[in-house]
TrEMBL record:
It holds the Pfam family TGT. Homodimer. Within each dimer, one monomer is responsible for RNA recognition and catalysis, while the other monomer binds to the replacement base PreQ1. It comes from Litoreibacter arenae DSM 19593. Gene3D superfamilies: Queuine tRNA-ribosyltransferase-like (3.20.20.105). The active site is at D93, D267. The lineage of its organism: Bacteria, Pseudomonadati, Pseudomonadota, Alphaproteobacteria, Rhodobacterales. This is Queuine tRNA-ribosyltransferase. GO terms for cellular component: cytosol.
Amino acid sequence: MTQRFQFDIRATDGKARTGLISTPRGDIRTPAFMPVGTAATVKAMMPESVRATGADILLGNTYHLMLRPTAERIANLGGLHKFMNWDRPILTDSGGFQVMSLAELRKLTEEGVTFKSHIDGSKHMLSPERSMEIQKLLGSDIVMCFDECPALPADRDRIKQSMDLSMRWAGRSREAFGDRPGHALFGIQQGGLEQDFREESAKALSKIGFDGYAVGGLAVGEGQEAMFGCLDYAPDQLPQDKPRYLMGVGKPDDIVGAVERGIDMFDCVLPSRSGRTGQAFTRRGVVNIKNARHMDDPRPLDADCTCPCCSQYSRAYLHHVFKAQEIISSMLVTWHNLHYYQELMSGLREAISEGNLSGFVKQFHATRAQGDIEPV
Ligand SMILES: [Zn+2]
């Protein structure tokens, strides 16, 4: 196994790429989907079950873990991998985005952000240096730069100001991260939906030099059309030979469209969060298992799915356990959803390898357009 962090592109089809990220903790096949393990767990899943769905890497959240149980406590207990029983790669975000969306009484300065915890009101500070320190204490394999992301829509002045600050913080993150063989630091491109700011941001990041690059500041309410509009140029502005990561995306069709535009990595709470509310992602679109039409349906969610939920349980059973609020309801549908996402990624990788991405995408949309199977 390699001791270095390395990215090899194995095949391309149009702008899409498939390849392998090698890390000392294992390989990551790209395009990759990272399930979200916010508080050191992918909710309702055992780590070995997450692995069984085909996930090569998980995402952990700096903001949540620094507040509870704290990064220092996790470090004293041997690091996040050991703590949560996941020995494969982990990417951690910088905490910046969640401070902005969750914390109370935020104060933003050149130095960083001070805020009050949404859990107990205690006071904390995050800066590029502190974020790097926390992600190191956690033992993260892929560390994200500390950045600031304005909510969209925002005017050009606000976006420019924020992007400039994020680029200064990117330099400080790089400095504070230092030289850590086997660990990677990713820069985050900002600039909202402004092509010139995106270009400026990409240039600033490339000059600093990172192991990978994220397209940040999207999927914040701008809608798919605007997001794809930005993705028509943003990935091209970033270095070709490094992984590109679209943060916080997304729905299956968002992912497919972003892969077509040259994105290699994704994370999203959607498959796990929806799993807990009875929304199942299938080849034929979203199925709400709580709907009464499933009450007497002996068929699986998706007859072609090989996950434990679909191979062993009926729609009627899933409907019942959701209605009865049994814990297994979250477990089964989360498992199915994560399995579906990983199968989608595997299908995309195979299609790119075979030079058949456009055929795959056509089939993907055609199957979804059929809608769910007819009621019994
Ligand atoms: Zn399934």
